[in-house]
Amino acid sequence: MKTRDLLKLPDLKLAQAISTMKGKECEKHARNYTKILGIEFEKAIMHATHAAMFSQSDEPVKLRTYKAIVDLVASDTEYGEREATILTALLLAHISKRMDRVQSLVTQTPPFAMS
Fold first, then answer.
1. How many C-beta atoms surround the C-beta of residue 67 within 10 A?
2. 29: region left, alpha or beta (phi > 0 left; psi from -120 to 50 alpha)
3. Which tens digit of pLDDT belongs to each residue from 2-32?
4. Count of Cβ atoms closer than 10 Å to residue 82 Cβ
5. Whose CB among 14, 41, 69, 99 lies 3.0–4.6 Å from 88's, allowing a Cys bridge?
6. How far is residue 59's CA from residue 71's CA, in Å, rounded to a whole number?
7. What is the DSSP annotation of 58-107?
8. Listed residue (93, 88, 56) closest to 71, CA to CA
9. Quick one: which of 10, 12, 5 has its CA closest to 32?
C-alpha cells in the first residue's frame, strides 16, 4: 500500500493497518509521511525516541511521544494535530518493532555458546 492510500483510510482502519505492519513497512511509511509534512525523518525519529525512552516525565510513553511530535509538527510545519497523531503512531510502531527485533537478538543464544 502506498503512503498516500494509507492516509486516506478512516482513523480506525488506519490505526489497525499501522498496528499490523512489519518494521520495514512502518519505517517506509514514516519516512514518506515526514517527507509529505516537510520534516526530516531523522529529526522526527530522534524526538520520538527521546520522548519514548529517555524522557524524565511520568506520563505514559504514548502521551509524552505524542506531545513531542505535536510540538515538532507545530514548530516545523503548518500542519496540525491530526497529522501529528498519524506521525506519532507511525513512529511509535517503528520504534516498538525495532526494539522488539533488538530484544529478540539479545535473548538468542549464540550458536557457538557452550552448554
1. 16
2. alpha
3. 999 999 999 999 999 999 999 899 999 999 9
4. 11
5. 69
6. 16
7. -S-HHHHHHHHHHHHHHHH-S--HHHHHHHHHHHHHHHHHHHHHHHHHHH
8. 88
9. 5
